[in-house]
Automatic annotation (TrEMBL):
InterPro entries: Polyketide_cyclase/dehydratase, START-like_dom_sf. It comes from the Bacteria. SUPFAM superfamilies: Bet v1-like. This is Polyketide cyclase. It comes from Streptomyces lunaelactis.
Length: 142
């Protein structure tokens, strides 16, 4: 298993950050690993919603079939997906109001046999991507 996380304070209210975070038409503007949603994002963002995403991590393309497992509008989005080579992926986005801004935390995990072969490089690459994503997200809403 490889676990990664990143956190940043964004100078915008949680409602504005959440709106950008869940605008699937604009994912390519901030999500550093996203390349496309071949069938579009989820029709309705709710528990059990499913969607497919094409991503790139460590320079390799990957298709992930996501399911929303945790959802608290404006605060928490937890998704779990199945990727190539038996790799399972989880992401949890948490927003916490902080004065005039918002603390945004992304926790991710990768499991599966292929992960153990490249756990160190995967952690480094995924952590860099999370930090870049938070920087871009902040730039869009600040």
């Amino acid at each position: 298993m490889a676990e990664v996380s990143a956190e940043a304070r964004i100078e915008a209210p949680a409602e504005k950050v959440w709106a950008q975070l869940t605008d699937f038409t604009a994912y390519d503007q901030w999500n550093a690993t996203h390349t496309s949603f071949p069938k579009g994002g989820p029709a309705t963002l709710e528990l059990g919603a499913t969607y497919e995403e094409n991503m790139k991590l460590m320079g390799f393309p990957a298709e992930v079939a996501w399911t929303v497992e945790e959802f608290e509008a404006g605060r928490v989005l937890g998704i779990r997906g199945k990727g190539p080579m038996g790799v399972n992926v989880g992401n949890r986005y948490t927003l916490t109001p902080d004065g005039d801004g918002t603390k945004v935390r992304i926790d991710g995990e990768f499991t599966g046999a292929a992960v153990s072969l490249m756990a160190g490089k995967l952690k480094d690459s995924a952590t860099a991507a999370l930090n870049e994503s938070l920087r871009k997200l902040g730039g869009l809403v600040s």
